[in-house]
Write a structure and sequence with these properties.
- There is one protein chain.
- The longest helix has 23 residues.
- The protein has about 425 residues and is α/β, with parallel strands linked by helices.
- It is globular, with a radius of gyration of 26 Å.
- It is built from 13 helices and 17 strands.
- It starts with a strand and ends with a helix.
- The protein has 3 domains: about 170 residues, Molybdenum Cofactor Biosythetic Enzyme, Chain A (3-Layer(aba) Sandwich); about 70 residues, 2-Layer Sandwich (Alpha-Beta Plaits), CATH 3.30.70; about 150 residues, Alpha-Beta Complex (Maf protein), CATH 3.90.950.20.
C-alpha cells in the first residue's frame, strides 16, 4: 500500500519545522506501513490542486495536513473540492458544535470561524476533540483521503483517535506487512555500523537504514511478516545471532522515547540517584533530565560551574590544577568529581563535564570539541576524553548524549 502525505502552509517553507509527517510515520510504522513520500506546498489553491493530482496518481492513501483554519489563506477545503469537482456546504450541526466550544472556553466567535463549518460534499466528518476545525475522510474508486488540522496537537489526537479502525482494515486486505524495529547505538561510527549491517544482514529478508543524530547512531530493521509476533521473533533472532557484535553498543530504550526518559525510568526502578556538575554544557544535562516527569525521584541537583572561580569555590578544584592543566583537562574533571563526592557522598552517580563548545576558545592542543566527562560511582570514577565535531549546540548535545549513554551502560551492569 502506497501512503503519501501533503503538508500545506506557507510557514512550513519559511523556517517552521514540519513535524506532522514524523508523527504519522512513526504511528504507521508500528502497524507495518510506511509513508512513501511527503510533499510540502504553500497556501495556494493551484499548488494544492497540483500536488493532489500528483499524489493521487502515485498513492493509494493520502494524508493532508493543514489549511482548515478560519483565515483567508486556509484554502484546503476549497482546493480539495476543486480537485474532486465537489462542492462545499455549510453544516449547521458542525457550526453549532464550534460555537459551543468557543462559548465553553469563553472565547469570542468571529465570522471567519464559520468557514470551519463547511463540509466537502460526499466526505465523512471527523469531530476535533481538542480544536475547532473538524477533519474529513473521502474515498473514491482509487484513493482514500484523510484531511486533518495542521496544529500538531490536534493532528496527533485525531490520528490516534480515528486511524486505528482504518489500519485494521488495511492490514486485513494486505496480508503481509512491514514491521519496523528501531535501535540506538553509541561508541561506534555510522560508517562502521553500516558495514556491519550490510555484511551481517545478507539473506535475512530484512532491510535497514541508519541515521546519525547528535552522537547517537540509530538503525532501523524493516521486517516483512504476517504478524507482529512473528516479526518480533525474527528481529530477536537477528540481534542474538547476526548482530551479537553490537551487544555492547546498543542502548535499549525499553519503550521510552528518549535517552533521558530511559535513564529516569531505570534509575527510579533501581532506586538510584544522580548529581551533576556542568561547565561547557551550561545546565543542558540537568534540563534534559528534569524535562522528564518523575525526575525528582532520581535527580538530586546540578551545579553549573561555568567559571573557574565556581570550580574553585564550590567544587574545590585546586587553583594550581587550573593553572597548570587548564579548565578543560582530565585533571580538572577528576577534581570536579571529587568535589561532588565530598558534597554529596550519598548520591549513587556523579557526572562532571568540562570542554570547549566553541566556536571560540580552541587551540591546537585543545581544539573546539574537546570534552572531558567523569562518571563517578562510589569510590570509582570513569573519565573519558572526547573530540566532537560540529557547531556549539552540536557539541553540547553530543556531550550530554554521551553522558546519558554512559550512565545507561553503568545501570545495565
Amino acid at each position: 500500500m502506497r501512503i503519501s502525505m501533503l503538508a500545506i502552509g506557507n510557514e512550513l517553507l519559511e523556517g517552521i519545522s514540519e513535524s506532522n509527517s514524523k508523527f504519522l510515520g512513526e504511528f504507521l510504522s508500528k502497524e507495518g506501513f510506511e509513508i512513501c513520500r511527503n510533499l510540502v506546498v504553500r497556501d495556494k489553491i493551484e499548488e494544492v490542486v497540483s500536488a493532489l493530482a500528483y499524489l493521487s496518481e502515485n498513492s493509494d492513501v493520502i494524508f493532508i495536513s493543514g489549511g482548515l483554519g478560519p483565515t483567508d489563506d486556509d484554502i484546503t477545503r476549497e482546493a480539495f473540492g476543486i480537485f474532486l469537482k465537489k462542492g462545499l456546504y455549510l453544516s449547521n450541526e458542525i457550526l453549532r458544535k464550534i460555537k459551543l466550544k468557543f462559548e465553553s472556553k469563553g472565547l469570542q466567535f468571529y465570522a471567519g470561524n464559520e468557514k470551519q463549518a463547511f463540509v466537502i460534499e460526499g466526505s465523512k466528518v471527523f469531530d476535533n476533540p481538542v480544536g475547532s476545525a473538524p477533519g474529513f475522510y473521502y474515498k473514491n474508486e482509487k484513493n482514500e483521503y484523510f484531511i486533518f488540522p495542521g496544529v500538531p496537537g490536534e493532528w496527533k489526537e485525531m490520528i490516534k483517535l480515528y486511524l486505528p479502525d482504518f489500519i485494521k482494515e488495511w492490514q486485513r486486505i494486505n496480508g503481509l506487512k512491514k514491521f519496523s524495529f528501531l535501535y540506538h547505538t553509541f561508541g561506534i561510527s555510522e560508517a562502521k555500523l553500516n558495514n556491519i549491517l550490510s555484511e551481517r544482514l545478507k539473506g535475512e529478508g530484512a532491510s535497514f537504514g541508519t541515521i546519525a543524530r547528535q552522537g547517537i547512531i540509530s538503525f532501523r530493521l524493516d521486517i516483512f511478516s504476517e504478524t507482529q509476533k512473528r516479526a518480533n521473533e525474527i528481529a530477536e533472532k537477528i540481534l542474538k545471532e547476526n548482530l551479537i557484535i553490537l551487544e555492547n553498543n546498543i542502548i535499549k530504550f525499553y519503550g521510552c522515547t528518549s535517552l533521558e526518559e530511559c535513564l529516569v525510568k531505570q534509575m527510579a526502578e533501581k532506586n538510584k540517584t544522580i548529581v551533576v556538575a556542568e561547565s561547557c554544557t551550561g545546565g543542558l544535562l540537568s534540563k534534559r533530565i528534569t524535562d522528564i516527569s518523575g525526575a525528582s525521584r532520581v535527580f538530586y541537583g546540578g551545579i553549573v560551574c561555568y567559571s573557574n572561580q565556581l570550580k574553585k569555590d564550590i567544587l574545590k578544584v585546586p587553583e594550581e590544577i587550573l593553572k597548570i592543566y587548564g579548565a578543560v583537562s582530565e585533571e580538572t574533571v577528576r577534581f570536579m568529581d571529587e568535589g561532588l563526592k565530598k558534597l554529596f557522598p550519598a548520591v549513587s552517580y556523579r557526572v562532571s563535564i568540562t570542554g570547549i563548545a566553541g566556536p571560540d576558545g580552541g587551540t591546537k592542543e585543545k581544539p573546539v570539541g574537546r570534552v572531558f566527562i567523569a562518571i563517578g560511582d562510589g569510590e570509582d570514577v570513569l573519565i573519558q576524553k572526547l573530540n566532537f565535531l560540529g557547531g556549539r549546540e552540536d557539541i553540547r548535545e553530543k556531550s550530554v548524549n554521551y553522558c546519558l549513554c554512559l550512565l545507561l551502560k553503568k545501570l545495565k551492569g
